[in-house]
Amino acid sequence: MSKHHVSTTINGEPVEFLCETQHSLLDALRDELQLTGSKEGCSSGDCGACSVIVDGRLVCSCLMLAVEAEGRQVDTIEGLAHGDRLHPLQQRFLEAAALQCGFCTPGLLVAAKALLDRNPQPTETEARYWLAGNLCRCTGYDKVIRAVLAAATDVQEGARKA
Amino acid sequence: MATITYSAPRSVDEAVHALRGANGAARVLAGGTDLLVQLRSGRAKPEVIVDIKRIPRLIGVRAHGGGHAIGAATPCAVIGEDPDLQKAWPGVVEATRLIGSTQVQGRATLAGNLCNASPAADSVPAMIAAQATCVVAGPGGLREVPVEAIATGPGQTSLSRGEFIVEFHLPRRPPYAADAYLRFIPRTEMDIAVVGAAANVTLDAKGVCREARIVLGAVAPTALLVPEAAAVLIGRRLEDDALSQLDAAVRRACRPISDKRGTIEFRTRVAGVLARRAASIAFQRARDRA
Amino acid sequence: MTSHGHSNGFKVVGTRPIRPDGVEKVTGRAAFGADFSLPGMLVGKVKRSPHAHARIRTINVAPALALPGVKAVITAADLPEIPSEESFVGEGPINFRDLSRNCLARDKVLYEGHAVAAVAATSSAIADEALERIEITYEPLPHVIDVEAAMAPGAPLLHDDLFTQGVEPAPTRPSNIAKRLQFVLGDIAAGLRAAEAVVERRYTTQPVHQAYIEPHACVAAVAADGQCQIWCSSQGQFMVRAYCAKLLGMGIANIRVTPAEIGGGFGGKTLVYLEPLAVALAKKSGRPVKMVMTREEVFRATGPTSGAVVEVKLGATRDGKITAAQAVLKYQAGAFPGSPVQPGCMAAFSMYDLPNVHITGYDVVCNRPKVAAYRAPGAPIASFGVESCLDELARTLGMDPLALREKNAAREGTRTAYGPVFNEIGYIDTVTAAKKHAHYSAPLGPHQGRGVASGFWFNVGGESSAEVHVNEDGSAVVVSGNPDIGGSRASLAMMAAEVLGIPVERVRPIVGDTSSIGYSFLTGGSRVTFATGMAVVQAAEEVVAELKRRAAMILDVSPDAVAWKDGAAVPTESYLGKFDPLSLATLALKAGRTGGPISAKASINAQGAGPGFATHICDVEVDPETGKVHVVRYTAVQDVGRAIHPSYVEGQIQGGVAQGIGWALNEEYIYDGCGRLENPGFLDYRVPVASDLPMIDAVIVEVPNPRHPFGARGVGEVPIVPPMAALANAIFDAVGVRLADLPMSPPKVLAALTAARN
Question: Nearest Cβ partner of A138 from C264, C650, C696?
Fold first, then answer.
């Protein structure tokens, strides 16, 4: 049983790991790299708890083979904050109480980051449809959407000041 | 626990070679949003996986012969962002953008959606209504076939061993032509289509329909082109009784099953409703295209 | 989000600080059950029945054991045989013999997905292969899924030693009806005779799953001396300890359970599935074992809540006074007895002050997974029927539905059908607030309709332990024994901070394992802020008493000279000016010299949990050509007693509403003709997604519960009770068809519309 040797970039850092063909990127992140922030909720791409960003595109890491990460840029929840500086999305989630059990939160934050990267000032409807692939069973999404919209304004203001 | 071989060829020929040379079952990997689910569930047990995403020709949207070419492994999200395609083929684009969640959109492809051959695939009715073709690579070289020639039944395609789709072609657009696609799902997102309806119409300067194609999804083993429904529209402006005749023609043609996603009656009823609504949107869009 | 009630004069309680475990959760560092690892860990997996009902003829595990990498295999033979024994360790009665057989089938499999064997191997792939190699022969038996089919004479019997309780004379033949209950108040026949309008209808609901996003997960390790450690996501580490001890015949003192962060429970994690298996495998293999369920396993084999038939009959005089309320509730329990039919019966009419009530309930087994608690267990089902029927009654009488509820509302002094008399309650306040809310008078568009419904939940108290320790720098640690599902850690820290008089950032709340904190009943029943909060407050008050004593010692004054204010020892009125305040920080620094560490604990059995009430308003828009229903506006008014942390109270309300909407519109278990589940995944088990819902206006009403130091009532369960009827009533208002069968999915709505047109 020979494994693939994968060289990739995760949260801006060069990373290497071994994997078998059938291992998903989620398996590699959690089991080989101990990056357990991305969660397994369903393994069929229906819940979004495993969301990561690959080459700037939001994807489910359970729907990608680990070996496909070769040469790509992968961004996970672990890379959202910079040291102890939380991203405005993370800060707003905390202030707005946009999480309860917190299990879907990493996936939601990554998905929201991808949203703001592409659509810096989304409407409520745009945010809801973009995030439809991230299931949350605790919050009813209300405070999540409010936090995302507030963070969008923060990011815009931060960009203006810079 | 056999090992699965994985390769990522850099050219069409390499890929044909890898697929053909596989001793056991081989699967093409484009977006992987169907294949990985099937690997996990045990429904797919390939010995070889050939990843076609490193072949440059297979990713991207470009002008081609007055129309468009779309690489087979282009993610739906990329297709959805192409402004030219949005203008020329709003129906194909909206159908493509309905496949799965945002995450799935980042990976899923037209080729995967077509070759997975689910009767409910969202992009297929719109592509057939558009008279799209696909270029198939194989041991015998390249051939171009209409999209409707690919799926032959649920989970079955006409592709033979060693063949895979390289790109799709959409024809040139005449003036006053537009398409639309609608699907019915019980929620607002994330569901497999219970019914899909695509309409592609070409009008004349007076708003009278000269050509039409109506294609339904999820009401037959493969996407269903309904010439009788299209015939209702020819020479007319889509007044009320044209719509009710269209509805009736569509319902007559449906051959759905009852399953966990919908019953025969429900699918048939809603197919008529969606066909009316899709045709109305297509007409409106065509009239707006000056 | 609005807050009614008195301005509370508190410094911390009622504010919205950032939760103490929040940063961990938004950075992905919080450790849930599956995030935990130990060196040398094996992967455990479960082999499950493909049949809905079958006798197990033979099991041969030898081929699996022979596979290199397989370190242990277990079946029911590896668990002690437990006699039938009912207990109240979890959330409601549990029979340990049934629980054992649910964890690993003995003699018979009773549902598709029923666990039959488990393996531990060095990799996931090897474990999967090992499962394939276990040879099991079954003798399939006829199965029964539907509750009324299971009740019918001649139905396939699941247990030949199950005799219906609650029936006179006691039956001699076994049945699938485990229990019949009755609750009676007054004289129902007289009540019906006195009625000038009578409305009755039959309602049905389907089983729905709690659908927490985190599948069950645990890691177990057993040392050579039999000391066992378990890390798991659950709603109660003491429950896990007790259940494992019982099921495995181990001493409680030999098991230590550490609660991981829990990714949703809603009642579904108030019992064990994997933990006893993981322990048994760890023991047999001599290595730690990790077990994580797949989503498919969660659906096939863990408890949904009941599906049910609910028959309601209401009688009233023309002025709207209800003279008779009758209900028959038939609930599926799944493979073993224990549906929530009893709380369903008890909650059904509890919002109302009624003279004549007659409720009959049936607990019925059938070949589905054993049901588990789901947020206000039993009540949403009963209320779907009762609150829909009330709507019909209102229309028959030509009365506004809120006015009808007001006219019959329960108040302080109302006797319930299940026995107790209410103390102060806030039901009427929720109706009044709903009536006054802008939503109730907002205009409606085409194909739109508005519905209202009310809800009730008892909320419980129970046993909780808490400790408060003062650190050397004057900060504090609060330890409790309840996993935090919805933000309770924040509320506990806030209550402690309020009592101690220090900023909440100086209070660190942690959830202790079973060896580090006194016994605590599990997290459920909307009890933690109430009962554990009470224990925390008690412990904090003892700390304050001690701090005052220490101050008196330092200042050389009499203890009654010292009061506590704003986190410092200050002179009482008669001693004003006699000394300067001594802060907690100063006292903490001097603790060693004044008697030692300052700490207190409380272990209580909290009584006086205040019931919660809610009234909801829902607007829908119906597509008359497809039957699709959109929820366009939702307002949920709830009496929460006192909102300790209003954001998390609102969150509980919004979350409960969302689950209720899913239950109402699209969630259901779909079975094939062989009793196999066709939709064991999030693709076809359709929970609401972000684009399905509007903003949910959570309106907090505060009628403080006098039995809690801050007036808190439980909040988590009430909000799931009204939505199904609120939606059914809104759909009726929109398109004039009454849907009585859940879920109200588009095909059903369209069929009802079509029938109405013809």
Answer: C264
